[in-house]
Amino acid sequence: MTITYLMILGTISNVTAHEAIPTIATVTIERDAVDLKVRFMSEAYLAGIDLSQFSFMNDSEQSGTYDRLRGLDVSDLTAEFNTAWSNLSNDIQIVQNGQPLALSLMAFSVDDIENDEIARYSVATISGAIVGSGPITVQFPKSLGEVVVRQEGVENPVTQLLNAGTVSEPIMAAGLDAAKSGWSTFVEYIPVGFDHIVPKGLDHILFVLGIFFLGAGWRALIWQISAFTLAHTVTLALGALEIVVISGSIVEPLIAASIVFVAVENLMTTSLNKWRPVIIFGFGLLHGLGFASVLGDFGLPEGQFIPALIGFNIGVEVGQLTVVGVAAILLTLPFGRFNWYNRAIAMPASI
Asked: Would residue 55 count as lying in a domain?
């Protein structure tokens, strides 16, 4: 059993080592210039990895190049980026009155994270001269994946989630003419939560499947899913409010350990003991902190915190139910009635 535990833990560590993290673009429009701070995985961009296609660097043919770049220190990576800046300056488009702005790189910084197994952010500060008060649009290369665009310095800032390679809605220097309604904010954040589970949340998918494959019947599944949902809802709210803040370097390994625990327990029992929902609740608290970290990256709009939080959480729930539903349709409904289901399907799947 110890060997199985270590094998599963090693597998999860490999999967989560080079997971893509979202690109965040912060826009500030001044009287004569627009400043853009792009927080992104510069190693993935320099390696030529298309983040609209890959959520994990190891899945790409360019993973070796990514690993080499990730192993560079801050000064060497900065030199690599400065060399490639001319390409990125053409790939990023800031347009006003139908004319693309000439962009200048003002600064470039990199998180100084020594552990090569942890993804790190780079921040490129870009500026372009504007004329007048006409709105601007921004567009990023498809290879950066989805981009969260946030405006700073105005009362009613714009917040947009751009699909890979798409153009933003017009952004005014004064921000939105009126604050976005709570309903529209709620609806906008549902797909953000769903996307964090399907397809990007492999760790959460594995945990939910671990709950599913206990094979103790629908009542047991409902008890576990309810405990998990209640727990991660609590810590998602506390984390988003910054009441509870724990480093991702602590939370992520514990989330991986929770997956291992559930999988190993599935190999040891096929019934729901009284402690399992309690343990699932505790692990749910950890997963909620992971959700809060993602939501913090995307940002919560000022004045619309509650609708955004509820929308994100509902998106997460829909994603989890989708995972359970697909597993039930493909496995439980056609095969669950057979005596060999646990032995031939549920237990091997837990491994």
From this structure: yes
Residues of the chain with pLDDT under 70: 1-18, 175-180, 215-216, 299, 302-303
Cα-based distances in Å from 260 to 163, 208, 278: 33, 12, 16
User: Given this model, what pLDDT does residue 15 score?
Assistant: 37
Q: Which two tokens stand for residue 189?
A: 């954040």
Which of 64, 295, 25, 285 has the alpha carbon at shortest distance from 166? 25
Please list the residues that pair with 36 across neighbouring strands.
Answer: 27, 126
**196 Ramachandran zone, left/alpha/beta (phi>0; psi -120 to 50):** alpha
Alpha carbon distance, N-terminus to C-terminus of the chain = 11
pLDDT digits (tens, 9 = 90+) for 58-101: 889 999 999 999 999 999 999 999 999 998 999 999 999 999 99
Q: Tell me, yes or no, whether 82 and 205 share the same domain.
A: no
Q: Is residue 8 part of a domain?
A: no
Domain that holds residue 344: 185-350
Q: Which pTM value belongs to this model?
A: 0.72
Query: What is the predicted pLDDT for the residue at 18?
Result: 61
Name which of 111, 130, 166, 109 is nearest 27 in CA terms: 130
